[in-house]
Amino acid sequence: MDTTQLALLALLLGAIIGAGASLILFAAFRARARVARDAVDVVPEGVTAVLEAMDDAAAVVGPSGVVMATSPSAAWLGLEAGEPLEHGELRDLVRNARSGATETETLRLQRGRMSTDSRLVAARATRIAERLILLIVRDLTEQERLEQMRHDFIANTSHELKTPVGAITLLAEAIELAADDPAQVRAFTARLSAEADRLGRLTGRIMNLSRLQAADELTEVGDVAIDEVVASAIEAHAVQADSAGVELVRGGERGLYVRGDAQILKEAVGNLVANAIAYSPRGSRVGVGVRAVEGVVEIAVTDQGIGIAEADQQRVFERFYRADQARSRRTGGSGLGLSIVKHAVSRHGGEVRLWSQPDRGSTFTVRLPLSEAPVIEVPVKKKRSAKAAVATTAKKGRV
Ligand code: ADP
């Protein structure tokens, strides 16, 4: 390499380093609180430092109603240094604060002038200097959503529990009234035990779902053989398939593994198999196929059943949502199966995809991060080696 080439290389390196440094400086500048001047007023340095450290959207508003400094997260609300306050509700709050009032108000604000996205916020304006007002806006939207979810869950759960509990009470009364008629007593008792079963399944599912929703992390994590998950889901529903006249077939790759909780995954795939059978006609087929694609294990449960209308395809994963009310109740459905599947899979860092067409059938595909086959310690016969054990992959031992 001659000196001209060396000089060119040095120049190029210099340019790259310079550009990188400017980018870093630019990013650092953007993350800081933004400050603008309003006439003669200046935001005190300490206030700017506090703004910089704030998670909430906050702004210092000058005497002319112009924003003078903002916290880094104020942009989502359209608060910008040098610009007037966009929201009339916030302008009112600032005006009141100038006359000494400091109240926290709960407001619903649009995210931007053109936006249809409204956010629930708690806003408070306080005078911090002769002519400066500090405005703090806390976004309560997520909190409100969680509260609504909790509220709906309790309301739905009590509604769902009322039906079997009511039926059990009525049947118990009927048995008492029919005490002298053994045939009737037998019939009522059979129905009573069916309702009790249903109640047991429903409470079991509610508990599973709340467990899945409550914990952020899985507690029982290990290497999970997908072969075992699929075999268990199929075995657990063989009787249901038989009595529904549906053929269960398994296909695809073997010997694949994921990290996670085997029991939770067995239940999730089992729920998909149970649905596939329940929503399929006699004489049809339900297939469970497995494959690995680009670091992901796909378990696809396919049926030739009634299918799901496009409008319902997103909603079927919601708790207690049933696309086909009558059929779901007839088959003892709780409307919780798919919700459990969705939470179970997302706890494993995966997702569930759905393809469906009414009267053609559905395919639910569980996608999970593929993991290496586990290394199993196999004791070695004394003669062959002095070492106690040899590592061999689980794949070798598989069929
Ligand atoms: P359920 O216990 O009612 O089956 P799920 O949460 O498992 O509750 O399913 C929600 C709804 O999605 C069902 O009520 C049904 O309408 C629809 N659904 C689920 N799986 C299928 C399927 N394989 N084919 C057709 N519809 C289905």
Task: Give an overview of the whole structure.
By secondary structure, the chain is α+β, with helices and mostly antiparallel strands. The chain folds into three domains: 95 residues, Beta-Lactamase, CATH 3.30.450; 72 residues, Helix Hairpins (Orthogonal Bundle); 179 residues, Histidine kinase-like ATPase, C-terminal domain (Heat Shock Protein 90). Helix content is 44%, strand content 24%. A hairpin with a 5-residue loop joins strand 5 and strand 6. Helix 4 packs antiparallel against helix 5. The protein starts with a helix and ends in a 6-residue tail after the last strand.
Short structural description:
It comes from Microbacterium album. The protein has 399 residues and is of the alpha+beta class.
Bound molecules: adenosine-5'-diphosphate
Percent helix, as a range, is 40-55%
Radius of gyration: 31 Å
Question: What is the count of DSSP helices, taking H or I runs of 4+ residues?
Answer: 11
Would you tell me the overall average pLDDT? 84
Spell the H/E element sequence: HEHEEHEEEHHEHHEEHEEHHHEEEE
Tell me the domain tally. Answer: 3
Termini separation comes to 59 Å
Please give the number of β-strands. 15
CATH topology of the largest domain: Heat Shock Protein 90
What's the architecture of the largest domain in CATH terms? 2-Layer Sandwich
The level 1 CATH classification of the largest domain is Alpha Beta
- Give the biggest sheet: 7 strands, mixed
Strand content: 15-25%
Write the layout of secondary structure elements.
Blueprint lengths: L2 H29 L2 E2 L9 H9 L3 E5 L5 E4 L17 H11 L5 E7 L7 E10 L5 E7 L1 H37 L4 H33 L7 E4 H11 L1 H7 L2 E6 L4 E4 L1 H17 L6 E9 L2 E8 L6 H4 L11 H6 L6 H11 L3 E7 L3 E11 L3 E5 L9 E5 L6
Helix pairs in contact: 4-5, 5-11, 6-8, 8-11
Bound molecules: adenosine-5'-diphosphate.
Adenosine-5'-diphosphate binds next to helix 8 and helix 11.
InterPro entries: BphY/WalK/GraS-like (IPR050351), HATPase_C_sf (IPR036890), HATPase_dom (IPR003594), His_kinase_dom (IPR005467), HisK_dim/P_dom (IPR003661), HisK_dim/P_sf (IPR036097), Sig_transdc_His_kin-like_C (IPR004358)
GO cellular component, one term: plasma membrane
Protein name: Sensor-like histidine kinase SenX3
